TrEMBL record, chains A, B:
Name of the protein in question: Transmembrane ascorbate-dependent reductase CYB561
GO cellular component: chromaffin granule membrane; lysosomal membrane
Entry GO MF terms: metal ion binding; transmembrane ascorbate ferrireductase activity
UniProt KW Transport keyword: yes
Cellular compartments annotated: Cytoplasmic vesicle, Secretory vesicle, Chromaffin granule membrane
Electron transport found in the keyword field: yes
Co-factor requirement: heme b
Keywords: Cytoplasmic vesicle, Electron transport, Heme, Iron, Membrane, Metal-binding, Translocase, Transmembrane, Transmembrane helix, Transport
Amino acid sequence: MAEHVPAPRFPNRLGPLVGGSQALGLACVIITGVWMGHFRGGFSWDGSLLEFNVHPLCMVLGLVFLYGDAILVFRVFRHDSKRAVKILHAVLHCTALVISIVGFVAVFHFHAKASIPDMYSLHSWCGMVTFLLYLVQWLMGLGFFLFPCIMAQMRSWYLPLHVFFGLALLAMAIASCLLGITEKLLFAIKPTYSKFAPEGILANSLGLLLVCFGVLVGYIVTQKEFKRPPNSEEEALSVHFKMLTGMEGISSP
Amino acid sequence: MAEHVPAPRFPNRLGPLVGGSQALGLACVIITGVWMGHFRGGFSWDGSLLEFNVHPLCMVLGLVFLYGDAILVFRVFRHDSKRAVKILHAVLHCTALVISIVGFVAVFHFHAKASIPDMYSLHSWCGMVTFLLYLVQWLMGLGFFLFPCIMAQMRSWYLPLHVFFGLALLAMAIASCLLGITEKLLFAIKPTYSKFAPEGILANSLGLLLVCFGVLVGYIVTQKEFKRPPNSEEEALSVHFKMLTGMEGISSP
């Protein structure tokens, strides 16, 4: 008689929470599209104000939604091979990086054409610091976790830093978006903003939804009950590593 | 011969990191004071723009610096009695709450006198949501952790939520400050902001320092190596609790 193997357990609350995060993230991308597409005249790549409109859409899609999802894959695909999930994490971060570079090019290109000074506002400072630290985190993640030649001890030293700064940079990306929303509204609709113009209410709501997305991703990632269970292959490696070095095994991100 | 009792270990890196957080927090309060006191004309309580100036100072002092310190006490006073540290945590949060209420009254009073509409901007929405959630967190913390009649199981259920939302609300408070900085600069010095006016550079730097403070507090609180070690009294209680209920003991915040 075949031995009974229980199906891997998927925490009850995780499904609805991840579903909620996806609904929030998609809502943020759609609302940004509607704001720029409907209220701000649409998109183009001709150096006009319509090129600027590419910037918010790319940043919300790349540095918030895809970035958040790249973090979540370790919780969602909890019973798949670690290697496959790492590759998915890297692919999502690659896409996020490319989209956010397009977003950066759009705003600098528009500024150059319209002779608007760069990098004077708090939004630009926070956004640039976040983007540069994201690049550093991206390159260090690639170096430490995708190349097999890196020693397990170095990975286990770097892992808590990678996890902490991953979440901190998501929070900074969202804060930069909120600053961008405020800047755009005060430039574009200052006289009607204080009269609760529909565009202002839409953009404010976008801000709160971005915060909700960040809080939900942060909650899912930090709660012990949702941590990725070590699978048999990782357990074996960890025990082998402990025997060889006398150290604690590498925990899952 | 008396038995040798080793001195409790204080992690090497914790001292400099906590020192750094205090330097950053104090710098934020001082820079806010200089910005409002020197560049914006000072403080008063007469419904004028000088009354508004009380608002940023109170929010940075109360909802950022004192709030952050209230979180840190569990790491800093790691070998003192849990009860004493809890009381210090509560006293700091009481002070933070009173100061932030003064900050809220200042801005609403100024708006009423100057007939400026309330609650239309993203800054006001984020700030109000943060403050109301802080009140809920404050009352729930008081109820669950300071009253001895609450059952240990309920405390251990609520603790991870209290810790997570404590950090999430600090991040939201800092994001609200960044939005306030951007709003104030675009109202007060829009023509010279893009010419890198000293006031704009000072306020932008304040924004980055607030982010650094939040990141450092978050780092200290979330790293395993800085977690509060259970003392003998807590260990005994935890073992007793496990024997009674068959549950895991209550972990430290």
